[in-house]
Amino acid sequence: MTPGTTILERYFIESILGEGGMGVVLRARHVTLGHTVAVKVMTIEHPEASRRFLLEARAMAAVRSPHVASVIDYGMHEDNPVLVMEFIKGESLEDRLKRVGALTWDFAFRLASEVALGLAAIHDAQLLHRDIKPANIMLEQGQPERARIVDFGIAKQLGPDAQRMTNTGVVIGTPAYMSPEQMLGTELGSASDIYSLGTMLWEMICGGSPFGDEYADALKRMTSPPPPLVLPAGLPAPPASACAAVLELLATDPQHREPRGREVARRLISLAQGQQAPATAQPSPGGTALAPRLRDQSGPLIAVARLPAHALRDREQRLWLTSLIPPAARSYTLGALWFALYPPDPEPAEPDPALSNETERELLGAFVKRYGNTVSVRVRRAPRSFRLSPSALAGAGQLPEFLAEMLGSI
User: Fold this and answer.
1) Helices H, strands E: what count in the chain?
2) Residue 17 backbone phi and psi in degrees, to 5
3) CATH number of the domain residue 334 falls in
4) CA 259 – CA 123 distance, rounded (Å)
5) Considering 86, 114, 143, which residue would you say is the last residue of a domain?
């Protein structure tokens, strides 16, 4: 498996991305379509390892989320199992923390909220990841960066039809990030992955593991509560509500943790944006529905549209786009996207979904009439804390989370 060779008759190996005891990860290019992929090849010969490798491929293929790496292909090359995944351009969270140290707490909360959404999709597919840690989180390049969960090597299927790959009482995972119940080798639920997320979030904010990196140190978590957050000098301190949210994810008893990834994500991103999302009093282990986003009544209305390239290059077309919005509104272009900010209501009032829907219908009707059915439009009410800086518009700074989510969904 050297650069310059072809694997599965259609993936040309360009370079080696990493090697481990079980195999190698390669960067490759599809010989016909030309897109770049990541190819994971298992190089050891062991029936149980081969079976687990196939289950990893099936587990990843069962999950659909923008925060989880996608499986593209699977096959055999010279009796070696091969897993082909999308290539994520960026760096791992582990490499980022080694390079820059601790992160600002609000940025860490945003990344953790995206991991939580990925975990929600994994749990929806009746799977546990069991190895959430910085090395298994990729930070995909973009505006803004996006957290992506990778490596399902020790994922476990849930439910009565699950194939048992690990005997009860056997400890498997990375000690520094394992939940107390995982260290005890007992039955696990989604709250175990949430605990690992909490440990990782603590590390992102404080620059180290709350209980240490060794197995003996990690055993403390079964008898001791999580320590308070201690930030490196020079970083802004998170509010008490944010500190409490981190420690709640690290509750020793899984019954005292919120097990629903979407609810965890909702709370973390609300805190990062300066909103006070209340904690859930009694978590419901069976709950998987997406909790409604907290809305601030007085934020601006934002419209985002994906339009033909010529509509954004031609001056006459841009003037026409400007004519679609009120005089007090402002429109901008970002790559192949057009978006507009309508002024917020001067008096706070109850959110009116009908206003967003009506504006969206009007814009879509005008776009379809002019450009055909290839356009798409979204209109949403932003929170009051929404701010759009000139540096973000110029591509030199991060876009606000709310706008980045809209741009990603269009």
Assistant:
1) 13, 15
2) -90, -35
3) 3.30.70
4) 10
5) 86
The pLDDT tens digits of the residues spanning 237-288 come to 899 999 999 999 999 999 999 999 999 999 999 999 875 444 443 333 332 2
Same structural domain, 231 and 95:
yes
Q: Provide CB contacts within 8 A for 104, sequence distance 6+.
A: 235, 236
CATH number of the domain enclosing 174: 1.10.510.10
Residue 338 lies in a domain: yes
1 within domain boundaries: no
* Residue 97 within any structural domain of the chain: yes
Same domain, 193 and 171: yes
- Select from 143, 140, 102, 59 the least CA-distant residue to 398: 143
| Residues in the chain, overall count | 410
Residues 109 and 81 occupy one common structural domain = no
- CB neighbourhood size of 170 (10 A): 8
Q: Does the annotation mark 314 as catalytic?
A: no
Strand-pairing partners, residue 306, are: 337, 376
Phi and psi, residue 191, nearest 5°:
-65, -20
Are residue 71 and residue 159 in the same domain, yes or no? Answer: no
Choose the catalytic residue: 131, 193, 296, 345: 131
| Residue range 73-130, pLDDT digits in tens | 999 998 889 999 999 999 999 999 999 999 999 999 999 999 999 999 999 988 999 9
In a shared domain, residues 99 and 65: no
How large is the angle between the packed helices 190-206 and 240-249, nearest 10 degrees?
140
Q: Closest by alpha carbon to 6, among 57, 82, 69?
A: 82
- Distance (Å, whole) CA 337 – CA 408: 10
Distance CA 69, CA 391 (A): 30
Q: 173: which DSSP letter?
A: S
Alpha helix stretches (DSSP H) within 261-373: 261-272, 309-313, 315-323, 353-371
Domain that holds residue 55: 6-86
Domain count, the chain: 3
Dist. CA 373–CA 399, nearest whole Å = 28
CA atoms of 371 and 367, how far apart (whole Å): 6
Helix (H, G, I), strand (E, B) or coil at 318: helix
Q: Which of 84, 77, 30, 79 is nearest to 60 (CA)?
A: 84
